[in-house]
Amino acid sequence: MSELSVRHLLGIKYLNRRDIELIFETADHFKEVLSRPIKKVPSLRDITIANIFFENSTRTKLSFELAEKRLSADVVNFSAAQSSVRKGETLIDTVNNILSMKVDMVVMRHPNPGAGIFLSKHVKASIINAGDGAHEHPTQALLDSYSIREKLGDVGGKKVVIVGDILHSRVALSNIFALQLLGAEVKVCGPKTLMPKHVESLGVTVEPNLRNALEWCDVANMLRIQNERMDMSYFPSTREYTRQFGINRKLLESLSKEIVIMHPGPINRGVEITSDVADSGQSIILNQVENGVAIRMAVIYLLASQIKQ
């Protein structure tokens, strides 16, 4: 059995192409499991996983929890909002207290970029980064690429445009790394104020015009405007943003070809995409949600198999 080249999943930039292919092959197997009447396997019956979320999350947390339970792992949930962190406890103390309860793996979301990397150097458990600030969100990028592979047969050679708030998006950075590793061509599109300064150094092209970007691409991944990460106004108004960078049915139908629409969620309906686009046959948004469980099962299973050795 092949294994991952890493002990933790801290970011896509630490993976190689074979790692991603192995995760996808394992996810194929778990997707088949998830379609059975009994959706559970006893693979991780002796593994305990702690979900530690220092930021609010509904979908990612639910998806991880479901993946862990489908693998029969013991699950501990920890929410920083109701914890001693508010009383001044440090990150390492918090996690070490949890690990002293004999936890094997930690799934962590944290507002500070690099929190997972920092933690992996100080604790024995395997760490999965469920999002660290505006840095990376590796499992989201894996499920996005997996969903493209499922829909279009392959990621290699495909043209993908990521539209929206590139500056504050951990999803954008992880997606750029994953798509390029798998041989896709990537462009980014959005307001100049929401583009990182040296984004071209990542090997992507900036396309300021949405229509041009959509005519070029096979897949458009629409990002949410991250108001909670903004300390100032980056564009005149939401209405103005939607007029320039939002997709509606009329725009979609006026293109010379049919493209695939994706969104990491949660959707601001009527801002980045309208409901008739989100719910259309060209959208694979619900497939992304479904694939998220299989991908997270695959990641957890592969990392846990190293713990067991």
TrEMBL record:
<feature type="domain" description="Aspartate/ornithine carbamoyltransferase carbamoyl-P binding">
    <location>
        <begin position="7"/>
        <end position="150"/>
    </location>
</feature>
<feature type="binding site">
    <location>
        <position position="266"/>
    </location>
    <ligand>
        <name>carbamoyl phosphate</name>
    </ligand>
</feature>
<dbReference type="Pfam" id="PF02729">
    <property type="entry name" value="OTCace_N"/>
</dbReference>
<dbReference type="GO" id="GO:0006520">
    <property type="term" value="P:amino acid metabolic process"/>
</dbReference>
<feature type="binding site">
    <location>
        <position position="224"/>
    </location>
    <ligand>
        <name>L-aspartate</name>
    </ligand>
</feature>
<comment type="function">
    <text>Catalyzes the condensation of carbamoyl phosphate and aspartate to form carbamoyl aspartate and inorganic phosphate, the committed step in the de novo pyrimidine nucleotide biosynthesis pathway.</text>
</comment>
<comment type="subunit">
    <text>Heterododecamer (2C3:3R2) of six catalytic PyrB chains organized as two trimers (C3), and six regulatory PyrI chains organized as three dimers (R2).</text>
</comment>
<feature type="binding site">
    <location>
        <position position="140"/>
    </location>
    <ligand>
        <name>carbamoyl phosphate</name>
    </ligand>
</feature>
<dbReference type="GO" id="GO:0044205">
    <property type="term" value="P:'de novo' UMP biosynthetic process"/>
</dbReference>
<dbReference type="InterPro" id="IPR006130">
    <property type="entry name" value="Asp/Orn_carbamoylTrfase"/>
</dbReference>
<dbReference type="InterPro" id="IPR006131">
    <property type="entry name" value="Asp_carbamoyltransf_Asp/Orn-bd"/>
</dbReference>
<feature type="binding site">
    <location>
        <position position="59"/>
    </location>
    <ligand>
        <name>carbamoyl phosphate</name>
    </ligand>
</feature>
<feature type="binding site">
    <location>
        <position position="60"/>
    </location>
    <ligand>
        <name>carbamoyl phosphate</name>
    </ligand>
</feature>
<feature type="binding site">
    <location>
        <position position="87"/>
    </location>
    <ligand>
        <name>L-aspartate</name>
    </ligand>
</feature>
<feature type="binding site">
    <location>
        <position position="170"/>
    </location>
    <ligand>
        <name>L-aspartate</name>
    </ligand>
</feature>
<feature type="binding site">
    <location>
        <position position="109"/>
    </location>
    <ligand>
        <name>carbamoyl phosphate</name>
    </ligand>
</feature>
<feature type="binding site">
    <location>
        <position position="265"/>
    </location>
    <ligand>
        <name>carbamoyl phosphate</name>
    </ligand>
</feature>
<dbReference type="InterPro" id="IPR036901">
    <property type="entry name" value="Asp/Orn_carbamoylTrfase_sf"/>
</dbReference>
<feature type="binding site">
    <location>
        <position position="137"/>
    </location>
    <ligand>
        <name>carbamoyl phosphate</name>
    </ligand>
</feature>
<dbReference type="GO" id="GO:0004070">
    <property type="term" value="F:aspartate carbamoyltransferase activity"/>
</dbReference>
<keyword id="KW-0665">Pyrimidine biosynthesis</keyword>
<comment type="similarity">
    <text>Belongs to the aspartate/ornithine carbamoyltransferase superfamily. ATCase family.</text>
</comment>
<dbReference type="InterPro" id="IPR006132">
    <property type="entry name" value="Asp/Orn_carbamoyltranf_P-bd"/>
</dbReference>
<feature type="domain" description="Aspartate/ornithine carbamoyltransferase Asp/Orn-binding">
    <location>
        <begin position="157"/>
        <end position="302"/>
    </location>
</feature>
<dbReference type="Pfam" id="PF00185">
    <property type="entry name" value="OTCace"/>
</dbReference>
<keyword id="KW-0808">Transferase</keyword>
<dbReference type="InterPro" id="IPR002082">
    <property type="entry name" value="Asp_carbamoyltransf"/>
</dbReference>
<dbReference type="GO" id="GO:0006207">
    <property type="term" value="P:'de novo' pyrimidine nucleobase biosynthetic process"/>
</dbReference>
<protein>
    <recommendedName>
        <fullName>Aspartate carbamoyltransferase</fullName>
        <ecNumber>2.1.3.2</ecNumber>
    </recommendedName>
</protein>
<dbReference type="GO" id="GO:0016597">
    <property type="term" value="F:amino acid binding"/>
</dbReference>
<comment type="pathway">
    <text>Pyrimidine metabolism; UMP biosynthesis via de novo pathway; (S)-dihydroorotate from bicarbonate: step 2/3.</text>
</comment>
